[in-house]
Amino acid sequence: MYKIIIAIDGYSACGKSTTAKKVAENLRYTYVDTGAMYRAVTLYILDNHIPLANTDEVAKALDEIDISFRRNLETLANETFLNGKNVEQEIRKMPVSDHVSQVSAIPEVRRLLVAQQQRMGKDKGLVMDGRDIGSVVFPQAELKVFMTADVKVRALRRQSELAEKGEIVPLEEILENLRKRDLYDTTRQESPLIQAEDAILLDNTYLTIDEQVDLVTSWADARIASLSRKGETQNRAH
Question: What are the residue ranges of helices labelled H in the chain?
Fold first, then answer.
C-alpha cells in the first residue's frame, strides 16, 4: 500500500498529540511526538540551570542530550527518554510548559531536532505533530492538518489533563501560559507557527477526540487512495 507522511501542526492544547497517535494506530504508521523532543531539551536545560539567554551554553548542552522513544509494553504507549531516563511525566509539568516555547525558538535547538525528525520520515508511513512539521520539517508531506480551538476550551482541556496526573493548576494560570505560548510560537523568527498553504484547517472547539481522529483518518485514507490510483495509472502508461 502507498505510504504517506501526515503532518499535524497547531496551537498548544489542541489535542494534536492524541489525535496524531490515534491516527497512526488506525493506519499502523509510526508516530513521533516532536513536542516531547523540545520538552525533553527544555527539561535538561532547566535541571542543569543553563541560562536560556546564553545561547552558546545552550548549544554546548545539546551535545550532552540524547532523546529516544520507547514503547511501554504494559500501556502500549510511546514514552520519552532523556539520556536513558524515562521523563514522560516530568516533561508534561507546568515548569517545562512555561519555558518550552522559549527553548524551541533557539535556532541551534531547532536545527538539531528538525534534522532528527527528517531522518525519521525517510521511509514515510509516519504521523508527526508539532509547530512546523508541514511548513519546515516536511513541506512535501502528502497530508497536512492545522489544528486550532478556542483558547478557553484549550485551557480547560489542559487543566483536566493535568488534574488526571495529580497536578492542580488554576485555570487563569493555564490561560496565561497558553496565550504567552501562542504569541511566542507565532512571532518567533525561527520556524514560527503558521498554517501551510496546502494544510487543511481543523477547528476542534466543538469536536470530540474520536470525531477529529475519524476526520483526519478519512482524509488520510482519501489521500492514500488518490496517490495509489495515480501510481497505478503511471505504471500502466509505462
Answer: 16-27, 34-47, 55-61, 94-104, 107-120, 151-164, 171-187, 209-237
| Beta pairing partners, 129 | 8, 33
Q: Which of 205, 154, 207, 157 is nearest to 182 (CA)?
A: 154
Tens-digit pLDDT profile for residues 135-145: 999 999 999 99
Amino acid at 159: Q
For residues 213 and 217, give the distance between their C-alpha atoms in angstroms, rounded to a whole number.
6
- For residue 75, what pLDDT is reported? 80
pTM comes to: 0.84
Tell me the DSSP string of 208-226: -HHHHHHHHHHHHHHHHHH
**In contact, 127 and 20? CB cutoff 8 Å:** yes
pLDDT digits (tens, 9 = 90+) for 10-57: 999 999 999 999 999 999 998 988 999 999 999 999 999 999 889 889
Compute the CA torsion angle 188, 161, 125, 123 (nearest 10 deg).
50
CB atoms within 10 A of CB 192: 15
Looking at domain 5-227, does it have CATH number 3.40.50.300? yes
DSSP lists the bridge partners of residue 130 as 9
